[in-house]
Every structure is written in C-alpha cells, then in structure tokens.
Amino acid sequence: MFGALGGCSSADSPSQSVIKTFKIGGSLEAYEILEELAEGYSKTVGDVEADFAPQSQTSAGLQGVKDGALDISALSHQLTKAEESEGVKYVPLIEVPLVLVAHESLTGVSNLSTDQLRAIYSGQIRNWKEVGGPDASIALFDFAEDENEKQVLRQAYLGETLEIASEAIFFADDDYLVEGVATTNFSIAAVPLSKELSQLPLRILRLDGVGPSKANIRSGDYLMSIPLGMALSRTPSPAAEDFAIFVASQEGQNILSAYESELEAEKD
Question: Which of 192, 194, 209, 244 is deepest in the core (most CB within 10 A)?
C-alpha cells in the first residue's frame, strides 16, 4: 500500500482551486445578514469566501475601507454626505426594527406607553408592579450614548435631554447587552431585531400598543428602526465589487427578502 501511495506524483493529484477572500468589518448589527449574503455568494462563485473581522463600530469599519484594511464595511446607519465624500460607496441592505425586549421572567406586561418607557429609563419607575407586572425591581440595560441604537431610542421615545437612571447598566457592545438581558431576571433593553433573539429567553414588548412589524415601520406607526447597509471603496477590490454585484442581483435580493420574512415571523 505504501508503495502505491509513493508512486503518486503531485502531477497525478487533482489540482486544488485557491480560495480567494475579502475582508468585512464594522458594525455588528449588519453581520448576521452579511454572513447570509456571503454564504450565498460563496455557494454561487465557489472559490471566494468572506473573512469577518472582530466587530467594532460603523466608523471603524469605514476607516478600514478608506485605509485599505477592509474590503467592505458593515453599516448600521446611512452614510452622511461627509462620509460619502470620503471615497466610499453606500449599498443599502435592509431596515430592521429596534425592539424593546424583556427577560421571560417578566409576566403581565406586554406593552409600555411612551410615558412608562421614559419613566423606566429615567428611574421614576423602578418596580414592574407599577406597570402591571410582578413585584420585582427593574434591571435596565442600556447602550452608551454614542451608540446608534441609543440615538434612535432617544429620537423616537426618550428625547434628547432625558437623564438616564443611575442604576442603569451601560454597554458599548451589542453581544454583551443581549447576553445581559437574556441572563438577568426582570431585565429590559432595546436591541436590534435579529434571528438570534428567538433562541433566547426574551419577549418583545409593544410600544403604545404598536408592534415592530414591517408594515408598522413603513407606515410610521412604529418609530424605531435601523438601516443596515455596507460600504466599499469607490475603487474597490475585484472581490468586493463582485460581492456588491451579487447583493444587487436577484439571488442576493432573494436572500434579503427571505431574511426579512424570518425576522417578521420571529417577532410574533
């Protein structure tokens, strides 16, 4: 047997294709959908795959594209005119709702009014029994002020000047915030809707009686949403340009539509 193996030359072995990679970095909120798009692209092309850098923020991802360290930046906000003038091109993907989630230990509460939400975030309401829930202290988890999610929450419900309760626990990382609310009884937080949430002990609350459906976002009845997109250089690498073409193709759009449908089913 060893003799037979030894007789095989490298010329006899089937040639192996070289896998080309392109690097994606930036906002974690857009990673889930970009991973699905990258998987579909790799299946279609066959010899290209995405390399996802550790998540950071949209600003860091944009800087990575401008510096050439990244091929594509994952974005959780639309580019400003100033950002677009810095040599990057914006590609919109989908819009996802920012949802208010509570740990499943919270019973008797499925909806909060704007006034109740503001009172919880300001510390005026500290116990769930004050809004019809159990006699339990509210554990408030929140994003740092410079995070896009917090800015969306302030614009929609809290207002720009509301002082957040001193008891609130602040996070600069989506993963840690979601993990915190998923592992803490009677906790509450606002987080971007993702497929991951359906696997966690969390419940999505309505706001002013309105749920975060696609129809309610489009009608303006539900006020919190985050546009997810990607950015690439105006002189992109061939792999980044081909990926952007795939995203705009019918196959890419089908992946986006399927993802939106899964999110729509999850929040019910």
Answer: 192
